[in-house]
Amino acid sequence: MATALAEAAREIVQVGQFLSLRNFVPATSGNFSRRLDARHAAVTRSGVDKGELTEADILALDILAPPPPGSSAETHLHLHLYRDRPHVQAVLHTHSMVSALLSQLRQAERELRLTGYELLKALGDNRTHETTISIPIFPNDQDIPRLAARVSEDLAKRPDTVAYLIAGHGLYTWGRSMAEARRHTVALEHLLTYELETMKVRR
Ligand SMILES: [Zn+2]
């Protein structure tokens, strides 16, 4: 597992620099993880600027066990995805301005429906803009195990969903590789921006 951990840590350090440059993880916010095998994942530790991660900031942990001290406060939200969805290889959580703002503004709708955008083809296996993608919005909760249970229960009814929002907080998305999770993050940042800009125009 040492080789898998070193490779996962390299990917996480790189994605941290990429997302930090785009202002998606301000201050020490956000957290990232990578599956190592059927039973283990690598997760960022808490309290570190995600643009300045080193391999020492990446912890290996058991996806079936309680997160160890020092791992990100939101580790539960990563682990349930690895448990619930065996194909998930990477999970990225960002706190960008648009994800926090739009999820707050649209919280009462409980989901964001995205329709007609060419960029929808960057999500999962979509092959057309002529579709509607629903991104659930969950209320923020400082009780992370409770929030993880709620998200896990809701996502069980949405097997094709590749992302969700936490109101006033940020975005979670995942992929079958780190590259796919990164593509989802960037595409969703643009799609959320389209929605926020449309709201301004329609005021
Ligand atoms: Zn967060």
UniProtKB/TrEMBL annotation:
InterPro entries: Aldolase_II/adducin_N, Aldolase_II/adducin_N_sf, MethylthioRu-1-P_deHdtase_MtnB. GO terms for cellular component: cytoplasm. Zn(2+) binds at H93, H95. Pathway: Amino-acid biosynthesis; L-methionine biosynthesis via salvage pathway; L-methionine from S-methyl-5-thio-alpha-D-ribose 1-phosphate: step 2/6. GO terms for biological process: L-methionine salvage from methylthioadenosine. Keywords: Amino-acid biosynthesis, Lyase, Metal-binding, Methionine biosynthesis, Zinc. Signal peptide: none annotated. One of its GO terms (molecular function) is methylthioribulose 1-phosphate dehydratase activity. Its EC number is 4.2.1.109. Residues 10-196 form the Class II aldolase/adducin N-terminal domain. It catalyses: 5-(methylsulfanyl)-D-ribulose 1-phosphate = 5-methylsulfanyl-2,3-dioxopentyl phosphate + H2O. Belongs to the aldolase class II family. MtnB subfamily. Catalyzes the dehydration of methylthioribulose-1-phosphate (MTRu-1-P) into 2,3-diketo-5-methylthiopentyl-1-phosphate (DK-MTP-1-P). This is Methylthioribulose-1-phosphate dehydratase. The gene is mtnB.
